[in-house]
Amino acid sequence: MEASEAEFEHPRKAFGWAARDSSGLLSPFNFSRRETGEKDVAFKVLYCGICHTDLHMTKNDWGNSIYPFVPGHEVVGIVTEVGSKVKKYKVGDKVGVGYLVESCRSCQNCVENLENYCPKSILTQGAKYTDGTTTYGGYSDSMVVDEHFVIRIPEGLPLDAAAPLLCAGVTVYSPMKYYGLDKPGMHVGVVGLGGLGHVAVKFAKAHGLKVTVISTSPNKKEEAIKNLGADSFLVSRDLDQMEAAKETLDGIIDTVSAAHSIQSLIGLLKSHGKLVLIGGIEKPMELQAFSLIIGRKLVGGSLVGGLKETQEMIDFAAKHNVKPEIEVVPMDYVNVAMERLAKADVKYRFVIDVANTPKPNS
Ligand SMILES: [Zn+2]
Ligand SMILES: [Zn+2]
């Protein structure tokens, strides 16, 4: 049976919560982690954010899930052991792990610190590691990760609120930097006000930008402006509002993963404006070439960020007090949390209090 194989595959005992099939239901799971290798950092997991990717992969929405599946790629904890060749970390350090635990280290992307675009990168959860074993994520009591893929959590950032930065944070920070949407005084739009969108608003404000939240639901207006610090709010279904806002934005970060029209968003861009998609919409979209040609506009994408940039992002967040809004929940609440996340019933990110959840079998 797979579960018992996982338990004795490696020497280090580990405990987490796993989905066993596409029902996505998570339950206690005994497995194992490798010994701390020369360049490995072992850490006790304290907190782990719940990302939309976790929800998709527990239910095998993308058809490539490996069961048992332990999700979690917004992992924060305290170092318990380091390998003999580890240079950056020592026991007791506060660290985190995001989307990736390995890459090829030699392709053009890897050489340029863009491990996130390495074709051989290995995901933290539900992937095959270099030794052929399955990677298990941070809904578990411990992690063992090569130091290259470990992030230092800066002082002054609460560990629970730091967790979502490791995926959601860098996913919105990276496109702002790459597409040059980080210059003070610029005006950007943020489409969707969920786990990604609310952090995008906070990073944009920290960069000194003017921010307009674009949403289908007018009832998010007060929240966006009063609590998250956005400057204005646009209801995307209100054609008068959309018309009045035409050609006012330098860029748009579109975080929505449900199918939606991007044509009206392009209309909001000034000449040379950029629309960046980070939401993973599966259905092909319609696009009028002339809406880009006239005004030299651009539609692009972006996927998380490299390790160097992830460190830069979290240091920036600590310095500028960018903190995700979180709801901390115990591990045994995780199935309810997943259901609520599917209905967007969370403000704005669940974070599992992993360390304070008792193990049932020990
Ligand atoms: Zn994620
Ligand atoms: Zn590579």
UniProtKB/TrEMBL annotation:
Cofactor: Zn(2+)
EC category name: oxidoreductase
Superkingdom of the organism of origin: Eukaryota
Pfam families the UniProt entry points to: ADH_N, ADH_zinc_N
A single MF term (Gene Ontology): cinnamyl-alcohol dehydrogenase activity
Keyword Zinc applies: yes
Enoyl reductase (ER) domain residues: 24-352
The protein's Enzyme Commission number: 1.1.1.195
UniProt KW keywords: Metal-binding, Oxidoreductase, Zinc
InterPro entries: ADH-like_C (IPR013149), ADH-like_N (IPR013154), ADH_Zn_CS (IPR002328), CAD-like (IPR047109), ER (IPR020843), GroES-like_sf (IPR011032), NAD(P)-bd_dom_sf (IPR036291)
Entry's family note: Belongs to the zinc-containing alcohol dehydrogenase family.
Stored PANTHER family: ALDEHYDE REDUCTASE
The name this protein goes by in its record: Mannitol dehydrogenase 3, variant 2
Species in which this protein is naturally found: Stylosanthes scabra
